[in-house]
Amino acid sequence: LADLSAELICDMLISHKKEKELEFGLSKVINAMNKKDIRESEALLGSVYAKISKLREEQSLIVHMNDNLDNLSQELQIPRSERKVFTGYKEMDEVIGGFRPGWLGVVAARPKTGKTRTLINFVANMVQAKSNVLVFTLEVPKEDYINLFFSCITGVPYNRFEDRKLSKKNIESVTAAVDKLKNEYGKFTVVDTLRGVNPDYIKNKIEDIEEKTGINYDVIVVDHATMMRPNKNFEADWRGQGTIAEDLREIARTKGKLMLAAVQISKEGTSKSHKAKKRLESDPGNTLARSDIW
After folding, report:
1. Whole-number Å distance between alpha carbons of 233 and 231
2. Could you tell me the pTM of the whole model?
3. Rounded Cα–Cα distance for residues 6 and 243 (Å)
4. What φ, ψ does residue 59 adopt, rounded to 5°?
5. Is residue 1 within 8 Å of residue 69, measured between CB atoms?
6. pLDDT tens digits for 95-126?
7. Which pairs from 243-249 meet CB under 8 Å and 24+ separation?
8. pLDDT, tens digit, for every residue of 11-21?
Protein backbone atom coordinates (compact mmCIF):
# COMPACT_ATOMS: atom_id res chain seq x y z
CA LEU A 1 0.00 0.00 0.00
CA ALA A 2 2.92 2.33 0.78
CA ASP A 3 4.08 2.03 -2.84
CA LEU A 4 0.68 2.99 -4.20
CA SER A 5 0.69 6.13 -6.33
CA ALA A 6 -2.61 7.81 -5.54
CA GLU A 7 -1.73 10.58 -7.97
CA LEU A 8 -1.37 8.08 -10.80
CA ILE A 9 -4.78 6.53 -10.06
CA CYS A 10 -6.47 9.94 -9.94
CA ASP A 11 -4.72 10.89 -13.17
CA MET A 12 -6.04 7.74 -14.89
CA LEU A 13 -9.58 8.41 -13.68
CA ILE A 14 -9.56 11.98 -14.92
CA SER A 15 -8.12 10.85 -18.26
CA HIS A 16 -11.04 8.44 -18.55
CA LYS A 17 -13.42 11.33 -17.85
CA LYS A 18 -11.76 13.35 -20.59
CA GLU A 19 -12.22 10.54 -23.10
CA LYS A 20 -15.88 10.23 -22.15
CA GLU A 21 -16.54 13.98 -22.42
CA LEU A 22 -14.78 14.10 -25.78
CA GLU A 23 -16.70 11.11 -27.11
CA PHE A 24 -20.12 12.42 -26.12
CA GLY A 25 -19.36 16.08 -26.87
CA LEU A 26 -17.77 15.63 -30.26
CA SER A 27 -20.50 13.24 -31.42
CA LYS A 28 -23.00 16.06 -30.78
CA VAL A 29 -20.78 18.51 -32.67
CA ILE A 30 -20.59 16.17 -35.67
CA ASN A 31 -24.37 15.72 -35.67
CA ALA A 32 -24.85 19.46 -35.65
CA MET A 33 -22.34 19.88 -38.47
CA ASN A 34 -24.17 17.25 -40.52
CA LYS A 35 -27.30 19.34 -40.08
CA LYS A 36 -25.26 22.36 -41.23
CA ASP A 37 -26.08 24.19 -38.02
CA ILE A 38 -22.87 26.21 -37.60
CA ARG A 39 -23.98 28.15 -34.51
CA GLU A 40 -25.01 25.02 -32.64
CA SER A 41 -21.74 23.33 -33.67
CA GLU A 42 -19.70 26.22 -32.30
CA ALA A 43 -21.70 26.31 -29.08
CA LEU A 44 -21.32 22.56 -28.53
CA LEU A 45 -17.61 22.70 -29.31
CA GLY A 46 -17.22 25.51 -26.80
CA SER A 47 -18.98 23.37 -24.22
CA VAL A 48 -16.56 20.49 -24.88
CA TYR A 49 -13.55 22.81 -24.45
CA ALA A 50 -14.99 24.18 -21.18
CA LYS A 51 -15.52 20.72 -19.72
CA ILE A 52 -12.07 19.51 -20.71
CA SER A 53 -10.51 22.70 -19.26
CA LYS A 54 -12.32 22.08 -15.99
CA LEU A 55 -10.97 18.53 -15.87
CA ARG A 56 -7.44 19.89 -16.47
CA GLU A 57 -7.92 22.15 -13.44
CA GLU A 58 -9.01 19.16 -11.36
CA GLN A 59 -5.96 17.27 -12.55
CA SER A 60 -3.62 20.08 -11.51
CA LEU A 61 -5.14 20.15 -8.02
CA ILE A 62 -4.53 16.44 -7.27
CA VAL A 63 -3.00 16.05 -3.83
CA HIS A 64 -0.13 13.65 -3.27
CA MET A 65 -1.95 11.26 -0.98
CA ASN A 66 1.07 9.06 -0.28
CA ASP A 67 2.11 11.50 2.46
CA ASN A 68 -1.11 10.67 4.34
CA LEU A 69 -0.85 6.87 4.18
CA ASP A 70 0.79 6.80 7.61
CA ASN A 71 -2.59 7.79 9.09
CA LEU A 72 -4.51 5.14 7.14
CA SER A 73 -4.42 2.49 9.88
CA GLN A 74 -5.89 4.98 12.36
CA GLU A 75 -8.60 6.13 9.95
CA LEU A 76 -9.67 2.55 9.23
CA GLN A 77 -10.45 2.08 12.92
CA ILE A 78 -13.01 4.89 12.89
CA PRO A 79 -16.53 3.37 12.62
CA ARG A 80 -18.65 4.45 9.65
CA SER A 81 -21.65 6.53 10.62
CA GLU A 82 -23.65 5.38 7.61
CA ARG A 83 -26.30 2.74 8.04
CA LYS A 84 -25.56 -0.71 6.66
CA VAL A 85 -28.25 -2.81 5.01
CA PHE A 86 -28.15 -6.59 5.44
CA THR A 87 -29.63 -9.25 3.15
CA GLY A 88 -30.65 -11.61 5.94
CA TYR A 89 -28.40 -14.33 4.51
CA LYS A 90 -25.78 -14.93 7.21
CA GLU A 91 -22.95 -16.14 4.98
CA MET A 92 -23.36 -13.32 2.48
CA ASP A 93 -23.66 -10.65 5.17
CA GLU A 94 -20.53 -11.92 6.91
CA VAL A 95 -18.51 -11.81 3.68
CA ILE A 96 -19.77 -8.40 2.49
CA GLY A 97 -20.19 -6.83 5.92
CA GLY A 98 -23.51 -5.35 4.90
CA PHE A 99 -24.46 -3.25 1.87
CA ARG A 100 -23.78 0.46 2.22
CA PRO A 101 -25.60 3.56 0.95
CA GLY A 102 -24.20 4.64 -2.39
CA TRP A 103 -23.48 1.11 -3.60
CA LEU A 104 -24.79 -0.52 -6.74
CA GLY A 105 -25.27 -4.26 -6.19
CA VAL A 106 -26.01 -6.51 -9.15
CA VAL A 107 -27.73 -9.90 -9.12
CA ALA A 108 -26.58 -11.42 -12.41
CA ALA A 109 -27.68 -14.77 -13.81
CA ARG A 110 -29.02 -16.55 -16.86
CA PRO A 111 -32.76 -16.43 -17.66
CA LYS A 112 -35.15 -18.34 -15.37
CA THR A 113 -32.57 -19.00 -12.66
CA GLY A 114 -34.19 -17.05 -9.81
CA LYS A 115 -32.96 -13.45 -10.04
CA THR A 116 -36.34 -12.00 -9.07
CA ARG A 117 -36.87 -14.52 -6.27
CA THR A 118 -33.44 -13.70 -4.87
CA LEU A 119 -34.15 -9.97 -4.92
CA ILE A 120 -37.56 -10.46 -3.30
CA ASN A 121 -35.96 -12.48 -0.51
CA PHE A 122 -33.46 -9.66 -0.01
CA VAL A 123 -36.28 -7.12 0.00
CA ALA A 124 -38.39 -9.10 2.49
CA ASN A 125 -35.49 -9.41 4.92
CA MET A 126 -34.52 -5.75 4.54
CA VAL A 127 -38.08 -4.52 5.14
CA GLN A 128 -38.38 -6.71 8.24
CA ALA A 129 -35.11 -5.12 9.43
CA LYS A 130 -36.85 -1.71 9.15
CA SER A 131 -35.29 -0.54 5.87
CA ASN A 132 -37.58 1.35 3.49
CA VAL A 133 -37.53 -0.31 0.06
CA LEU A 134 -38.79 0.99 -3.29
CA VAL A 135 -39.05 -1.56 -6.11
CA PHE A 136 -39.29 -0.83 -9.84
CA THR A 137 -40.55 -4.02 -11.49
CA LEU A 138 -40.13 -4.15 -15.26
CA GLU A 139 -40.88 -7.83 -15.73
CA VAL A 140 -43.09 -9.26 -12.96
CA PRO A 141 -46.52 -7.58 -12.58
CA LYS A 142 -46.93 -5.52 -9.41
CA GLU A 143 -49.62 -7.83 -7.96
CA ASP A 144 -47.40 -10.90 -8.40
CA TYR A 145 -44.43 -9.08 -6.86
CA ILE A 146 -46.50 -8.19 -3.80
CA ASN A 147 -47.77 -11.78 -3.49
CA LEU A 148 -44.20 -13.08 -3.68
CA PHE A 149 -43.18 -10.61 -1.00
CA PHE A 150 -45.94 -11.71 1.37
CA SER A 151 -45.13 -15.35 0.65
CA CYS A 152 -41.57 -14.64 1.82
CA ILE A 153 -42.47 -12.91 5.07
CA THR A 154 -45.35 -15.21 6.05
CA GLY A 155 -44.11 -18.57 4.80
CA VAL A 156 -47.40 -19.14 2.96
CA PRO A 157 -46.72 -20.93 -0.38
CA TYR A 158 -46.89 -18.56 -3.35
CA ASN A 159 -49.29 -20.77 -5.30
CA ARG A 160 -51.94 -20.20 -2.65
CA PHE A 161 -51.77 -16.47 -3.31
CA GLU A 162 -51.83 -17.04 -7.06
CA ASP A 163 -54.77 -19.48 -6.94
CA ARG A 164 -56.61 -17.50 -4.23
CA LYS A 165 -56.78 -20.59 -2.03
CA LEU A 166 -55.67 -19.13 1.28
CA SER A 167 -56.80 -20.92 4.41
CA LYS A 168 -58.06 -19.08 7.46
CA LYS A 169 -54.65 -19.53 9.08
CA ASN A 170 -52.94 -18.17 5.96
CA ILE A 171 -55.16 -15.07 5.99
CA GLU A 172 -54.36 -14.51 9.67
CA SER A 173 -50.64 -14.66 8.84
CA VAL A 174 -51.05 -12.13 6.02
CA THR A 175 -53.15 -9.82 8.23
CA ALA A 176 -50.47 -9.94 10.93
CA ALA A 177 -47.79 -9.13 8.33
CA VAL A 178 -49.79 -6.17 7.02
CA ASP A 179 -50.13 -4.85 10.57
CA LYS A 180 -46.38 -5.11 11.10
CA LEU A 181 -45.79 -3.30 7.80
CA LYS A 182 -47.90 -0.45 9.09
CA ASN A 183 -46.43 -0.25 12.58
CA GLU A 184 -43.15 -2.14 12.88
CA TYR A 185 -41.38 -2.96 9.61
CA GLY A 186 -39.89 -0.59 7.08
CA LYS A 187 -41.97 0.71 4.17
CA PHE A 188 -42.41 -1.39 1.03
CA THR A 189 -43.49 0.17 -2.27
CA VAL A 190 -43.74 -1.44 -5.71
CA VAL A 191 -43.97 0.54 -8.95
CA ASP A 192 -45.18 -1.18 -12.12
CA THR A 193 -42.64 0.06 -14.64
CA LEU A 194 -42.82 -0.18 -18.42
CA ARG A 195 -40.03 -1.91 -20.25
CA GLY A 196 -37.67 0.55 -21.93
CA VAL A 197 -37.54 3.24 -19.24
CA ASN A 198 -34.17 4.92 -18.70
CA PRO A 199 -32.19 5.79 -15.55
CA ASP A 200 -33.45 9.39 -15.67
CA TYR A 201 -37.00 8.05 -15.28
CA ILE A 202 -35.93 6.02 -12.23
CA LYS A 203 -34.23 9.07 -10.71
CA ASN A 204 -37.22 11.38 -11.27
CA LYS A 205 -39.69 8.77 -10.05
CA ILE A 206 -37.76 8.29 -6.80
CA GLU A 207 -37.87 12.04 -6.17
CA ASP A 208 -41.57 12.22 -7.04
CA ILE A 209 -42.57 9.30 -4.79
CA GLU A 210 -40.46 10.51 -1.86
CA GLU A 211 -41.95 14.00 -2.14
CA LYS A 212 -45.53 12.68 -2.28
CA THR A 213 -45.20 10.06 0.48
CA GLY A 214 -42.66 11.73 2.75
CA ILE A 215 -40.77 8.42 2.89
CA ASN A 216 -36.99 8.40 2.62
CA TYR A 217 -36.17 5.08 0.94
CA ASP A 218 -32.98 3.29 1.98
CA VAL A 219 -32.98 0.74 -0.84
CA ILE A 220 -33.97 1.04 -4.51
CA VAL A 221 -34.50 -2.18 -6.51
CA VAL A 222 -34.61 -2.35 -10.33
CA ASP A 223 -35.85 -5.70 -11.63
CA HIS A 224 -34.45 -5.94 -14.08
CA ALA A 225 -32.00 -3.45 -15.56
CA THR A 226 -31.50 -5.43 -18.78
CA MET A 227 -34.98 -4.29 -19.84
CA MET A 228 -34.01 -0.63 -19.51
CA ARG A 229 -32.63 1.62 -22.21
CA PRO A 230 -29.80 4.14 -21.72
CA ASN A 231 -30.34 7.87 -21.36
CA LYS A 232 -28.48 8.23 -24.66
CA ASN A 233 -28.65 5.84 -27.59
CA PHE A 234 -25.59 3.87 -28.68
CA GLU A 235 -25.01 1.71 -31.72
CA ALA A 236 -23.32 -0.96 -29.57
CA ASP A 237 -25.70 -2.58 -27.09
CA TRP A 238 -22.92 -3.43 -24.63
CA ARG A 239 -22.00 0.25 -24.36
CA GLY A 240 -25.62 1.20 -23.63
CA GLN A 241 -25.84 -1.43 -20.89
CA GLY A 242 -22.64 -0.09 -19.41
CA THR A 243 -23.98 3.47 -19.22
CA ILE A 244 -27.22 2.22 -17.62
CA ALA A 245 -25.15 0.71 -14.82
CA GLU A 246 -23.06 3.89 -14.51
CA ASP A 247 -26.19 6.04 -14.27
CA LEU A 248 -27.83 3.74 -11.69
CA ARG A 249 -24.67 3.86 -9.63
CA GLU A 250 -24.65 7.65 -9.94
CA ILE A 251 -28.21 7.73 -8.56
CA ALA A 252 -27.07 5.57 -5.64
CA ARG A 253 -24.07 7.84 -4.98
CA THR A 254 -25.82 11.19 -5.22
CA LYS A 255 -28.89 10.14 -3.25
CA GLY A 256 -27.06 8.06 -0.66
CA LYS A 257 -29.13 4.94 -1.28
CA LEU A 258 -28.38 1.28 -1.87
CA MET A 259 -29.26 0.38 -5.45
CA LEU A 260 -29.90 -3.28 -6.29
CA ALA A 261 -30.45 -4.40 -9.88
CA ALA A 262 -30.98 -7.72 -11.57
CA VAL A 263 -29.31 -8.25 -14.94
CA GLN A 264 -29.55 -11.10 -17.41
CA ILE A 265 -26.32 -12.47 -18.80
CA SER A 266 -25.60 -14.96 -21.54
CA LYS A 267 -24.52 -18.54 -21.17
CA GLU A 268 -21.03 -17.50 -22.22
CA GLY A 269 -20.91 -14.86 -19.52
CA THR A 270 -21.63 -17.42 -16.81
CA SER A 271 -19.16 -19.97 -18.15
CA LYS A 272 -16.69 -21.26 -15.62
CA SER A 273 -13.87 -21.06 -18.13
CA HIS A 274 -11.12 -18.57 -17.34
CA LYS A 275 -11.43 -17.01 -20.81
CA ALA A 276 -15.15 -16.24 -20.44
CA LYS A 277 -14.72 -14.96 -16.89
CA LYS A 278 -11.91 -12.64 -17.95
CA ARG A 279 -14.03 -11.28 -20.82
CA LEU A 280 -16.94 -10.69 -18.42
CA GLU A 281 -14.78 -8.74 -15.99
CA SER A 282 -12.77 -6.77 -18.52
CA ASP A 283 -15.51 -5.68 -20.94
CA PRO A 284 -15.68 -1.89 -20.30
CA GLY A 285 -19.36 -1.75 -21.15
CA ASN A 286 -20.44 -4.68 -19.00
CA THR A 287 -22.95 -3.93 -16.25
CA LEU A 288 -21.03 -6.06 -13.77
CA ALA A 289 -17.88 -4.01 -14.27
CA ARG A 290 -19.80 -0.90 -13.17
CA SER A 291 -21.15 -2.45 -9.96
CA ASP A 292 -19.74 -2.43 -6.43
CA ILE A 293 -20.97 -5.94 -5.58
CA TRP A 294 -22.06 -8.77 -7.89
Report:
1. 7
2. 0.67
3. 26
4. -65, -40
5. yes
6. 888 999 999 999 988 888 889 999 999 999 99
7. 243/285, 244/198, 244/199, 244/287, 245/104, 245/106, 245/287, 245/288, 245/289, 245/290, 245/291, 246/290, 247/198, 247/199, 247/200, 247/203, 248/104, 248/199, 248/202, 248/222, 249/104, 249/290, 249/291, 249/292
8. 555 565 666 66
